Amino acid sequence: MSTKTKLTAVVGAATLAIVLAACGSQSEPSGAEESPTADSTQTGTAVEHNEADTEFVQMMIVHHEGAIEMADLIVERASTEQVRELGERVRDAQGPEIEQMTGWLESWGEELPSDMDHGGMDHGGMDMGGMDQQQAMEALGNADGAEVDQLFLELMIEHHRGAIEMAQDQIDNGQNTDAIALAEDIIAAQEAEIAEMEQMLEGS
């Protein structure tokens, strides 16, 4: 083989190696660019709420916790099976909603009620005939017999009305579609329970 032929072969091999190396380096990152990362997806979701959504979820968690506290007491102390069963339904419905709303706050990067100072928060929805949560629990604890049932029904009606007011504010001012849908569900469910409790009081 002549010197010229050998040189041509060497140059051709070197050129082929460079081309292959270039193709390999270009193909590696292409797969990473094809799909968004989980972090970018979560960031997009996290901004789909406003201040009204955050306040509604924070306060509704606290409000639900108050209802469950009252429901736990009536399940133990109710004088009728009808009222005891209502307490169980309230507890079973609102517990999962607390978990759902807690998950929203975490995904939004917002503060949980358990980490907040509630001193400056509006607890208007917690007022029950002039009693706050602590006073209501004390009154239920001091009642006996049928008086416990009647007082629970009266207090829970007022408690539900507070939740409905909060939920309507969310529908009017919120942005997050999931939180608005929950507010609509709360209004429907608690209006039905108010009607049921009023019938119980009429029959007592």
Automatic annotation (TrEMBL):
It comes from the Bacteria. Residues 26-47 are annotated as: Disordered. Keywords: Signal. Residues 53-201 form the DUF305 domain. The keyword Signal applies. It holds the Pfam family DUF305. It comes from Demequina sediminis. This is DUF305 domain-containing protein. Residues 1-32 form the signal peptide.
